[in-house]
UniProtKB/TrEMBL annotation:
Catalytic reaction annotation: a uridine in RNA = a pseudouridine in RNA
GO terms, biological process: enzyme-directed rRNA pseudouridine synthesis
CDD domains on file: PseudoU_synth_RsuA_like, S4
A Pfam family: PseudoU_synth_2
The protein, known as: Pseudouridine synthase
Family: Belongs to the pseudouridine synthase RsuA family.
NCBIfam families: pseudouridine synthase
Length: 252
């Protein structure tokens, strides 16, 4: 057998791009082929228009209309609605309840993106994509986190401006990106704070510094990923749109 014949007899490496897109739930194979021809698909930063393109689903970075699509089924992206009183750690040597208790039956090494203190409830992202987790936590990427806080009132009219201008804490100045008074009831107020800071207990320290200690705190969103009707302790996989929004937010 000639070298040319040997080359032709070797199986082609990778999987056809349209099949990978179909398996990822982007579109049927036929629709995926049309998307490829239209130049709507990029692989590793390069727009692909040839239908014969093969890729390795474990390593290829694929974007559809500019949005990252997960084709590597080894990657995990979860949302946990963390209940109050649960430690933000995978295990605790003193036997206290922790988020690892909710993940015992899941395969692979998972870790949480950032932390919520034990008394804080709400959205916690869990993944095995280390680079994504690092970028989501790093303040330079300015990924916004949204919190609903019940605080002691009354709330002065200039509090929002004060928080946006910045408040000096022991570890430096902190500014909120947005602030909104949601409700007032019997000497307490419900406020929404949006900020890209991720320092320890930042919302609690901030609100205490301006004279409105937090009584209850819930994180409701990270970027475009939001809690909806998930009960405390519930875990669900992120959908394709949510995953794409996180990668887009950190430039991946």
């Amino acid at each position: 057998m000639t070298s040319e014949e040997k080359s032709q007899s070797k199986p082609a490496e990778g999987v056809r791009l349209q099949k990978v897109l179909s398996q990822a739930g982007v579109a049927s194979r036929r629709a995926a082929e049309e998307m490829i021809v239209q130049g709507r698909i990029a692989v590793n930063g390069e727009v692909v228009r040839q239908l014969g393109r093969r890729v390795d689903p474990d390593t290829a970075i694929i974007h559809v209309d500019g949005e990252r699509v997960m084709v590597n089924n080894k990657l995990t992206h979860l949302m946990l609605n963390k209940p109050r009183g649960i430690l933000c750690t995978m295990s605790d040597d003193r036997g206290r309840p922790c988020i690892g208790d909710y993940l015992r039956k899941r395969d692979g090494k998972l870790f949480h993106v950032g932390r919520l203190d034990a008394d804080t409830e709400g959205l916690l992202l869990i993944t095995n994509d280390g680079e994504l987790a690092h970028r989501l936590m790093h303040p330079s990427y300015r990924v916004l986190k949204t919190y609903m806080a019940e605080v002691l009132g009354p709330i002065p009219k200039n509090l929002g401006r004060q928080l946006r201008d910045g408040v000096e804490l022991s570890d430096g100045l902190v500014k909120v990106d947005r602030f909104k008074l949601v409700d007032v009831h019997e000497g307490r107020a419900l406020v929404e704070l949006v900020l890209h800071e991720g320092r320890k207990r930042i919302v609690r320290r901030l609100m205490k510094q301006v004279g409105h200690p937090v009584q209850r705190l819930v994180r409701t969103a990270i970027g475009d990923v939001r809690l909806t009707n998930e009960r405390p302790g519930a875990i669900r996989p992120l959908n394709r749109k949510e995953i794409g929004s996180l990668y887009r937010a950190v430039g991946m």
